Task: inverse folding
């Protein structure tokens, strides 16, 4: 295999790895794919530290105020949180299935998978809206209207729990919302027949992002909803 | 191959070809495992186990996260370079937690009258009341 014209843009047109055009700075479509995958993981590593700061704050303040965190968490709707956990895990599965569908060239299955993932993401956000509304009506949103009537002695630390709850689930919800936007764009790309076995990088890289969103929730659920049943860290 | 020196992953012929397509059956099996673990973590949270509840909940979450990363995110088939980046994010997170908590936990090991007290004080030695003034 003579690769003498490797650096010329013209070579891209007859890429042997799958027929998809790759940008001239890459040797092959495969290398371009690996670069995109690596780039997404570098971004996800920064995301680990973004959410990590909030997890650190949670660990510090739960260590300082274990009883207040326990009592404040009694206001959480565990059933709704569990439903949302299942919804997000299933959406991760439909996203993974979408990657498989695009690899196999099954365009309609890919579009169904993307629609299902968007649907589950929407269900998750609607449930979150119900929870936020209930907390708001119970005066559990941090700020001037915050009340912790059953035990005013721990109102400050309880407010801290709800500040962390809204900050962590809020940042997570922002990621879910951005994910919905990206998947709508993928749906359009699939509709325009721009995705398939020779080029599915956007599907796979979006999948990485979406699984990471699932990953964050896998930790948020036990930390924010399942403190019940014991006191102490 | 002339291109091997330019590819991100070494071992061009064996590992940097088209990456493997993972069957949907694998994804389905992982889905079932994740749903079972979710049910287990909810069930265990309802049982009074004292100080064991949180370590169990975190362990199950770590197991679920490992399944998501290894299979859904396909880290198990990834290049060494990618694994280093994946590991780096979590190692830095662990450093952040370990250093911060080693400070918080060890603050009262050596008596120091000038050390800040927790719960927080207002600077004059008076504890800030937990309730809103």
Result:
């Amino acid at each position: 295999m003579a690769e003498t014209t490797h650096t010329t843009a013209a070579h891209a047109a007859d890429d042997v790895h799958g027929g998809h055009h790759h940008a001239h700075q890459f040797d092959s479509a495969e290398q371009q794919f690996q670069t995109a995958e690596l780039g997404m993981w570098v971004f996800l590593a920064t995301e680990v530290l973004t959410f990590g700061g909030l997890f650190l704050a949670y660990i510090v303040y739960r260590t300082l105020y274990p009883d207040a965190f326990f009592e404040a968490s009694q206001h959480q709707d565990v059933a709704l949180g569990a439903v949302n956990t299942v919804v997000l895990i299933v959406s991760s599965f439909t996203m993974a299935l979408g990657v498989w569908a695009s690899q196999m060239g099954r365009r309609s299955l890919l579009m169904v998978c993307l629609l299902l993932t968007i649907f589950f993401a929407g269900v998750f956000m609607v449930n979150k809206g119900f929870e936020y509304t209930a907390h708001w009506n119970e005066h559990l949103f941090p700020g001037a209207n915050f009340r912790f009537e059953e035990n005013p002695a721990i109102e400050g630390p309880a407010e801290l729990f709800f500040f962390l709850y809204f900050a962590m689930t809020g940042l997570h919800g922002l990621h879910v919302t951005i994910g919905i936007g990206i998947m709508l764009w993928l749906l359009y790309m699939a509709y325009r027949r721009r995705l398939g076995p020779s080029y599915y990088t956007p599907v796979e890289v979006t999948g990485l992002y979406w699984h990471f969103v699932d990953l964050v929730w896998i930790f948020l659920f036990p930390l924010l909803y399942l403190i019940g049943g014991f006191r102490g860290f | 191959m002339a291109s091997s020196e330019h590819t991100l992953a070494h071992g061009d012929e064996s590992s940097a070809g088209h990456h493997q397509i993972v069957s949907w059956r694998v994804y389905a099996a992982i889905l079932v495992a994740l749903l079972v673990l979710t049910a287990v973590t909810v069930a265990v949270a309802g049982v009074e186990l004292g100080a064991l509840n949180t370590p169990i909940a975190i362990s199950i979450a770590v197991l679920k996260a490992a399944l998501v990363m290894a299979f859904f995110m396909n880290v198990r088939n990834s290049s060494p370079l990618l694994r280093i980046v994946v590991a780096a994010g979590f190692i830095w997170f662990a450093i952040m937690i370990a250093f911060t908590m080693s400070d918080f936990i060890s603050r009262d090991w050596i008596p120091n009258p000038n050390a800040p007290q927790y719960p927080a004080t207002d600077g004059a030695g008076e504890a800030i009341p937990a309730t809103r003034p």
Notes: The domain at 29-225 of chain A is CATH 1.20.120.80 (Four Helix Bundle (Hemerythrin (Met), subunit A)). Confidence is low (pLDDT under 50) at residues 1-18, 229-233 of chain A. Chain A touches chain B through 72 residues (CB under 8 Å).
